[in-house]
User: Fold this.
Amino acid sequence: MIKRLQRKFVVIAAVCLLIVEFTIIGGINGVNIYQTNKNADNLLNIIIENDGRFPEFDPKGMKHDKPQDNSDSASPPESKKPDKHRGFNEETKYQTRYFVVYADSNGEITEVDTGHVAAVSSSQAIEYGESVLDSGKTSGTSGNYRYKTGDTDKGKIIVFMDCRSDAATKNRFLLVSCAIGAAGYILVCLLIIIFSKRAIRPVVESFEKQKQFITDAGHEIKTPLAIISANTEVLEMVSEPNQWTVSIKNQITRLNGLLKELLSLAKMEEEKPALTMADFNISDAVYDAASPFTTLAETKGKKLTIDVANGLSYHGDEGAIRQLVSILTENAVKYADEDGEIIVKLFTSHNGKETDLEVSNTCKEPPQGDLTKLFDRFYRDDSSRSRSKGEKKGGYGIGLSIAQAIVRSHKSKISCKAENGMMIFTAQLK
Assistant:
C-alpha cells in the first residue's frame, strides 16, 4: 500500500509538472512565432506602401506630423515609432530579401522585380504571383516566402519576402526550449522520486500506527473475551442457559469474528503479504469455494447458480483466491433480493490475458452514489444493503475491504457496478 501511495504521488506530481511545462514552452514558442510573423508582415506593409521598395530610413520623418521647433528654447519632442514600423532600421533594406509582382485589374501580371533576391528568377516570380492570384488569398506562405497583397495606383502588388532565416530561428528556438524543458522535467521528476518518501512520511506513519493499533487491540481484546466466554459457560453450568447467556455467547462469537477479519485485513495490506504463489486449477477452487453457499441461499429462498469455465489455471495464492470467492458469494447471498438470484461466473477475458471472477445478485434498489465506497472498511449502505423489510443484515463492513486487499495483493483489479437490476462485482485477475 505504501509503495502504491508513493507511485500515485509521483505520477500525479509528474503529470502536473508536464502540463505546466507544455503550457510554458507552448506559450513561449507561440509568442515567438506570433512576433516573428508580425515583424515580417510589418516589413511587407512598408514595401507595399512604398510601391515595392523600402523607403530611405528617416527616423524623424516617421515620427512627427508637425514640423519641429528647432529653437534652442524648445526641447525636442520624444520620438516613438508607430507599431507598423517596428523592426525597420538603417540596415533593414540591405538585410531583407524579397521580390515583387505587379498585376493589372484583370489579374494579368504586368511586371516583376527580382532585383532584391538571388534565389528566384523572373519566370519563377511570375509562377509565384499566378499561384497567389489564383488562390485569391491576400496573405500567407508559399514555399520559403511569406507574401502579402495590396492595391496601388498601377493595380495589384504582391510582395514575397524570404523567411528562411526566420523559420530556422523559430525551429532552433523550439528545439532548444524543448530540450531545456525535457532536461528540467527529468531532473525535477528525479527529485520528486527521491523526496517522495519524505513527502508521504506522515501518511506512512499514520498507517503504521493504525496497523499496530489493530494488532495490539486484537491481542488485548482476546483475553477479556476469553474470560467472558468462560464465565458465561460457568453460569450455564450453575444454572440453565437462558436468553441472556445465549446473547452474551452470540456477541462473543461476533467480536471474535470481527477481530479475526481485522487482523486478516491488516495482514493483507502489508507491503509484502505472506502469499504462497503457485499455479493451480482456479476452476476447481472457485467451484469448491462457492458450492457450500448453495444450501444457505436455498434456506433464504434464493437461487445460487455457479457458471465456471472448466480447466482454467491461475498463478496465485489458492487459499486467498478461495477466501475471495467466499467473501463475494456470501456478500451476494446476504444482500440479494428475496426470491432473488445469485450468479458466480469464472471465465477468460476477451483479450485472453485475464481470468475474470464475476459475482452478481439481484438488487432492485442498488446503493446510490459512488459504489467504490463499498470497498471501504466498515462501510455499509443502510438504505439499500443493511436492511431488507426491517431485517438486519449481519457483517462488519470489512469483508469487501479484505476482498479488495486480496485482489490488489495479486496485482489485479476489482470493481462493482449496478446494471439491469443486478449488483455485479468483478475481479480481473492478471
About this structure: The longest strand covers residues 145-152. Residues 2-49 form the longest helix (48 residues). Residues 62-81, 383-392 have pLDDT under 50 and may be disordered.
